[in-house]
Amino acid sequence: MSGHHHHDHDHDHDHPHAPPQPDDKVHSYHQILSIALKELLIEKGVITAAEVRQFIEKRDSITPANGAKVVARAWLDPAYRARLLEDGNAAAAELGFPITGTKLVAVENTSDTHNVVVCTLCSCYPRDLLGLPPAWYKSRAYRARVVREPRAVLREFGTELSDDVALRVHDSTADIRFLVLPQRPVGTDALDEEALAALVTRDSMIGVALLDGGAR
Length: 216
Known about the structure:
2 domains, about 45% helix, 11 helices, Nitrile Hydratase, Chain A, three-stranded mixed β-sheet
């Protein structure tokens, strides 16, 4: 996948749909390819099985708490927020989360604009900040429907947006990852950075959920 594009939606569909279902066959080709590549690299002595295991353990240990720290800092520090929106990679690296090989684009929710992220062809995802993608993010249902009828899909996640809120769907690619900067909940002026980070959820940084106190 290549290119950076998003889809604007200002209409809705009222007919009901089943909620997105996980599809464990999405990565079958890529899983086979990665296994073959891993075995070849081990056989050639480029890496060891122990190094592969350590890398997997490190990747699996990443949680959405990383992204939540980025969001909380952006809420508290206007200069950092500006840097995050200008250059997501550099801003993430400031907090100790270097992202290499892909461009990180932060998109900000406001009172009149809501953003949601998808990868229509596979499951490109900012793993350095959010960890492993949820099963529904990889499902064919979510990948296809959130572009065609995003309001209906968000409703199934319990997220109701008013008609005057513009909805933008951002399609991740092999080169670009997106992070949604959710609105800071009202009534949190007295909270410090750690307490604010505890309020941020994975789904709010994908855009399928709102935080309590956010605009609807």
